[in-house]
Amino acid sequence: MTFNTFLRHLREGAKNVFRNGWMSVASVISIIVSLFILGVFILLVLNVNAIADKADSQVQIRVYLNLNVDKQLRETVQKEIAAMPEVSKVDFISKEQGLVDFQNSMGDEGKDLLEGFDNDNNPLPDSFKIEVYEPTTVPFVAKKIEALNTSHSDQQPIMKVKYGKGTIETLFKVTQTVRNIGFVFVAGLAVMSMFLISNTIRVTILARRREIAIMKLVGATNTFIRWPFFVEGTLIGLIGSLITVLILFVGYDRLAAAVGSDISLQMNLLPINDLWQWGGLLLILGVLIGMWGTTLSLRKFLKV
Amino acid sequence: MIEMQDVWKTYPNGTHALQGVSVKIDRNEFVYVVGPSGAGKSTFMKLIYREEVPTKGQISVNGFNIGKLKQRKIPYVRRNIGVIFQDFRLLPRLSAYENVAFAMEVIEAPKRQMKKRVMEVLDLVGLKSKANHQPSQLSGGEQQRIAIARAIVNNPSVIIADEPTGNLDPETSWGIMQLLDEINFRGTTIVMATHNKDIVNTMRKRVIAIEHGNIVRDQLRGEYGYDF
Question: What region holds the ABC transporter domain (chain B) (predicted)?
């Protein structure tokens, strides 16, 4: 192929996008629709993942001490817990601090109920707030802490170990399921959009069957006929995915700003700067789909 | 130039379109192919430009054994054969100029040479002034002239014309015939299937009559010979 012929193919491919008018628009729209759904889903899965990660890291263990534990024993227990390799942090919450926290967490109405309790008749025990490195080890660490009662045989220091038994296990299951379903769904959507688009392109090529037959009568080789179509498909894929990425990112930016400024939601979406690579992925996918769609659909009609 | 030896063609649906045709067409000849509809004229033409392959027998065009041609060699053989059809078969979204230039783009002709040559043939068919018109903006006769320009632009040795005047009024038809005669005069072999009695009887050339898949008559300066 001479350079001039190559330029000719590029020119013809670009012209064809315009010559085909509504057919091109239809192809572009079908690319936009499928990539958009795909993109929304990717963003959703990414954010659910981030939220799940955060929820994981917030899982903690509360250890309540018996009321008669003295300062020395308390510090020994704290050291023993801190020495466990899974544990990242141990905070001591005194019964006084516990009462204040409790009152705060009850809000304005609950304050009345707790009135009358002060440091002299505080019903709450001292406690530890424990964080671990790996959330899945929580049940295991909780058991280990409970076992400290057996090692301190003279006086059992621990009244109760709480870690939201059940809730944590459910949370793990839910986040894992969301991830799995999410990825299966994204993969399925990607394949589906490919077929949708290759079908649209097939329709446009079907309409041009006669032209292909004429070109072959004039002595055009298959390669010569294929190139402009190939360029056209690539351009349509590029245009479609560019528009999609633009819509997605502008929309996401607005949404993230809205979510971030709404205090009652108490959450932030992933910052848009972390997501550019996914935009790039959608662009590449769009172009590949365009190329693949034309090549696949053309093969049938070139056997004239 | 074109030679058929005992050529048979049976379509998958069982139609025996050609049954043992042997013929020889020399360089620079002008041949009418006549006969009733469905007699095998179109199959005869299609075999020459390799749209169909013979079931049996040999066809050679310009020294190529057309029946045994490899799929990817077909385009190169077709570049030496100009084809003209009743329904013109122009690329609908290209201008007259672009349609003719397409045949030269296919053979990767240099750009400058292409411009010159395309304008030259458009001038020859008398449509230089309508180079930028789309096919839909041209009359039937004009479209056929563009098709002829496309067919001759690469100087093929043969032109295959399948009822080129079939869709045109008598006056326009004569214009097309004069053009084909001129092209033949310049040295191109022309094989033309036709139903036009006036043309065959007036512009006397070799006549090959096909009926029921056989050549029943082959005369130099022959007559149309049918009453329709």
Answer: 2-228
Closest CA to A237 of A13, A87, A62: A13
Whether ipTM exceeds 0.90: yes
Cβ of residue A181 closer than 8 Å to a chain B Cβ: no
Fold for domain A60-162? Alpha-Beta Plaits (3.30.70)
Q: Which of A22, A210, A217, A225 to mutate to test the interface with B (most CBs of B within 10 A)?
A: A217
Question: What is the spatial distance between Cα A92 and Cα A57, in angstroms, rounded to a whole number?
Answer: 19
Q: What angle do CA A125, A129, A130 make, to 5 degrees?
A: 140
pLDDT truncated to tens, each residue of chain A (304 aa)? 888 899 999 999 999 888 878 878 888 888 888 888 888 888 887 887 777 777 666 677 888 888 888 888 888 888 888 888 888 888 888 888 888 877 776 666 666 676 777 767 777 888 888 888 887 788 888 888 888 888 877 788 888 888 766 666 676 777 778 778 877 877 787 777 677 767 766 777 777 888 899 999 999 999 999 999 889 889 989 999 999 999 999 999 999 888 888 777 667 788 888 888 989 999 998 898 888 877 777 777 776 4
Task: Find, in chain B, the residue whose alpha carbon is nearest to that of A304.
Answer: B51
Which residues of chain A neighbour B83 with C-beta distances below 8 Å?
A: 217-218
- The residues of B whose Cβ lies within 8 A of any Cβ of A are 49, 51, 72, 74-79, 83, 89-93, 102-103, 105-108, 110-111, 150, 154
Could you give the CA distance from residue B150 to residue B122 in angstroms, rounded to a whole number? 9
pTM for this structure?
Answer: 0.73
Q: A-chain residues within 8 Å CB-CB of B108? A: 1-2, 4-5
Domain boundaries, chain A: 3-55+170-301, 60-162
Burial call A244-260: b when 16+ CB within 10 Å, e when fewer: bbeebbeebeeebeeee
